[in-house]
Amino acid sequence: MIRVPPGRTGQVWLRRRLETARRGIDILGRKQRLLALERERRDLQTAFARTAWMDACAEAERWCSRALRLGHEHQIAVVAAHLEARATMTVEWRNMMAVSIPDNAHCAFPDLALASASGGSSATDRAVETLANALEKGAAHAAIQRALANIDAELLQTRRRLRLLERRRLPQLERALNESRERLEQSEREDTLRLRWARPG
User: Fold this and answer.
1) What is the dihedral of CA 122, 128, 134, 140, to 10 degrees?
2) Is the pTM for the entire model greater than 0.85?
3) pLDDT 10s digits, 41-82
4) Integer Cα distance of 66 and 123 in angstroms
């Protein structure tokens, strides 16, 4: 139930709110379309990113197996001990229609050439490189997945708000404006009749 001010003031009040509701519907509709396009673009990327990640993991697993066959069971731990620091990941974020979306994920690695100082084989060096590549590909895939999750959450909220405006708020305001107009017209007809009756013969 909308509480409307009486008379013409109420009609002005309702028209302003109708205009606001229609503008809100237009903005939310545009936002929904843009988010849906972005989601479609990211969805296409995710299959490629997942394939690249899985392929990189498979290659890393092959080289790790070779390194372990040529070295010893603690080969990977020995290599890790020679590296100066852990790998780090940086995520670049951007804002799209009030949604925070990870745009890119970059991994930074310590000097992987130090792995050679562990005394391992060339297979060990290659294993280190392929592990780094798998991590890089995994980070890229994770960024796309997070982007999809954020877009989906915002799309859901946008659709709910749009439905609320289109199916409830707008019809309520339009009904209230029609009722206000009818009441005002009825009141004006009654005033006209009273004036006619009040006139002398």
Assistant:
1) -130
2) no
3) 999 999 999 999 999 999 999 998 888 887 766 676 777 777
4) 6
